[in-house]
Write a structure and sequence with these properties.
Elements lengths: L3 E10 L2 E9 L2 E5 L2 E3 L6 H13 L1 E15 L6 H4 L3 E14 L14 E6 L8 E2 L2 H10 L7 E4 L2
Parallel strand pairs: 1-6, 3-8, 5-9
Antiparallel strand pairs: 1-2, 1-4, 2-3, 2-7, 5-6
Pfam family, one: NUDIX
Protein name: NUDIX domain-containing protein
GO molecular function: hydrolase activity
Length: 153
């Protein structure tokens, strides 16, 4: 399997982070809206499309905050992700219009709902990639950090 590009939206309003909620055998977990880049599509186009599909929102795409590499065989989900190698580009986005935030026209597989997580409580949630939780909190405090986070989960 080749390397797959993915574009993700970091949407923060009123000290909360917009996420999609899913569930597995360990309980609820959360992901940023976004997904795979399609052939011929720019990363900005991909994140805009994915936000409409997953959270029913039009977004403005801003700065690239993080680049995360995910090599599945190196992490706790290796039993089902061993062949996955993905590069995720996480952009700061803002909602410019919505038809009511919630599951969009093409929700992510297994997506239960859309949920705002309080930034001050982010460490209490199983948000993937988990290492990014600290980086997001630091970002809101003006702490500088490298954009490339490495192979993390």
């Amino acid at each position: 399997m080749g390397i797959r590009n993915s574009a993700k939206a970091i949407i923060m309003e009123e000290n909360k982070l917009l996420t999609i909620k899913k569930e597995d055998k360990d309980g609820y977990y959360y992901l940023l809206p976004g997904g795979g880049q399609e052939h011929g599509e720019t990363l900005h186009e991909a994140v805009k499309r994915e936000c409409m599909e997953e959270v029913n929102a039009d977004v403005d795409v801003g700065s690239l905050l993080f680049i995360r590499e995910y090599i599945g065989k190196n992490h706790e989900h290796a039993e089902f992700d061993a062949e996955v190698h993905q590069i995720e580009y996480m952009f700061l986005c803002s909602v410019t219009g919505s038809r009511g935030l919630g599951n969009g026209i093409v929700p992510d597989e297994g997506q239960i709902s859309v949920e705002w997580l309080p930034l001050e409580e982010l460490m209490q949630y199983r948000l993937y990639p988990q290492t990014m939780r600290e980086k997001l909190i630091d970002y809101t405090k003006g702490v500088e950090f490298p954009v490339y986070l490495g192979d993390i989960n």
